[in-house]
Amino acid sequence: MGIFDRVAKTGRPDAGAATQEVSGPEASAGQLLEQGMEFEQQGQPEEALRCYDTAISLMPELARAHFNRGTILLDRGDAQQALEAFTQAVRYKPESAGAHFNLGAAYSRLDQHEAAVPAYREALALKPEFAEAEMALGAALEELGQDEAAVASYRRALEINPAYTEAYDKLVKVLNQSKRFDELADTYRQMLETDPHNADWLNNLGAVQRKLGRFKDSAASFRRAVAADPQDALAHNNLGATLRTLGQLTEAVDSYRRALDIRPNFIEAHHNLGNLLSELGDADSAVSSYRQALEINPDFAESLTAMGAVFQTQGKFDEAVELHQHALAIRPDYAQAHSNLGNALQDLGQLESSLKSTRRALELQPDFTEAHNSLLFVHNYLADQPVPHLLAQARRFGEVIARRARPTLAWDNPPDPQRRLRVGFVSGDFCIHPVGYFLDGVFAALASHAASLELFCYPTRTCDDELSQRLKACCHAWHPVVGLSDEHVAELIRDDGIDILIDLSGHTAYNRLPVFAWKPAPVQLSWLGYFATTGVQAMDYLLADPWTLPASEESSFTEKIWRLPETRLCFTPPRTDVTVSPLPALTNSYVTFGCFNNLTKMNDAVVALWAQILNAVPASRLFLKARQLQQASAQREVIARFAAHGIEPGRLILEDYVPRENYLAAYQKVDIALDPFPYPGGTTTVEALWMGVPVLTLTGERFLSRQGVGLMMNAGLAEWVAADPDDYLARAVEHAGDLQKLATLRAGLRSQVITSPIFDAPRFAKHFEAALRGMWQAWWAQNSAPSTKARDER
Q1: Cβ atoms 481, 402 nearer than 8 A
Q2: pLDDT by residue (tens digit) across 684-741?
Q3: In the CATH scheme, what is the homologous superfamily, with its name and number, of domain 2-178?
């Protein structure tokens, strides 16, 4: 209540805090009043009080003595006695604005705000231009939770005195607490009119504009702040965060480093720089930044779990788990760390523990989209998940992101059914990545359809390799959206006039599904990178084929199903010159089964069935190659899981993932590939086929679990599709028992699949374009009324 101390002191000479004319028998009381005031000026409040007390004993109606006495009592913290003194001052001088004001101050000091409000209002009735009273009234109303009335009082105080800094401070505080950010931004702009170079106000304005999603304005404010005070490390850090959101990543790195030049122990700037470097793919530098943050504060949970997430991308899963657990020991309710721990445990195949951590993250933060993604994704690895439960989980995600979006309800796109279409693709995998391998040949084929299609790409992570360069060359435009807000990305897509927007990620890493909730394009569909419903109501279609999604399963999707006539997947032949070797079993005298899938797909049912196969095929081996196997702990666990089924360690070949050329060459050691379930291979399957290795897959009921079926049927390998686990075992034994037939198949398999639908990009591109045209014409049929707004033909 320091504001009242100051006003109470300056209130005594205020007009209305009346002095009395004294003469005759009253002269002694008046003289004591004057003497008391002199003592106050000399800094002797106790002597002044004695004078006022004596004056009041001689003349009880002497209002000024009561008033002055009250101010001394209030200054020294005796609010109750001050209240009594001001009550007497008001009694004897009801027309005194100052007396009513200080009466309110005493009530406020005693936390009796309901009583303070009418006292302040009476002061204002007597003196309407009393800025301090308006300010104090606002504070009392704020204490009573009447924020709207408090804001009005603060604004009125500023109308009376535009330079009233304390009123601005109170006003911005209540506006911020009530999240009235538009008004808060306006207030800071008004403040800056009085002091245009106030770095603190500029910094605060930038922060508010950032909350409002006005990132360009925010960056401009932060730039003004650092220009006003080049040594303001906080402003440099905030500028870096906003530039990152705007996708100006190099400049953002520079801003963070400038902040650290000024303040080397700025832990948040170290952490933010680490996050950005991680986003840029510079894992080692990111870890270095996190370590510097942790040198400043070893218990900085944010950097602990962020560094764990980087370790996970490097395949250091045990270290990642340890860091996430350390972060949670420090902050048990840290949702991000629970989510990160869930992701790391998922990669280690500890799915129940992964689910537990992810669910805890969502308990703590129900709108945590990253954790929702993880929860939905981990269900892909689990068998026997009730479809209604999976659909409900996906819908819940869709509801969360829909609440944050303001979807477009009308588009400027000309609804001409035959015109050239602008097709946008959103993904974090336009690079050396399984999704990139599927896109490579397809994009090249689609680029030859330039008269009917224009391709636009919106990369959601930074990557620049030979594959991304090839994809970029096929596009009309390439707009990285790393760091951009969902609203900003949606605006960019609308400005590009995209007709059909395609999600390539689903609930996998780097997805931007929340952008689709803004409905920036008239037609939106999900394809390629995910094998279940997105749950996003604004997603119109999901692309399937006749093999992978039975009609009976369509009710499991929030999207409409659009089927391509043959296959939904078309792979690009590897550019690496790796030959198909002769069947290794002919020289080994034993059959080598293999699986190069993510080890998380190898659930207990898979291990049990594969162990049966090994037991049924004498001397056979199982070759597993996965990035988890770089960890000794993962190798020990695999050995133990198979040992439980009687498989000796010598029959297992365990290898880490290696560069692609060496990885493909490893298939030269494999006779038969085994597909896991219920999450079969995709990229690994087509790579095995290209290397002459047939893949035994198990039919499932779900879209995800039938991907192997679609690939095998399109490859002309129906005899490699098993109906159930018993059939899977029988077929494995049968195929392993006829090595000559297997050798013949191997020798011709590459030629067979190269001409099949799963490798024929021009053929796939024709079907793909026909599907897009069909979707567009369906939209046109619904939006071809004469009132439809149209932009000029591009």
Answers
A1: no
A2: 999 999 999 999 999 999 999 999 999 999 999 999 999 999 999 999 999 999 999 9
A3: Tetratricopeptide repeat domain (1.25.40.10)
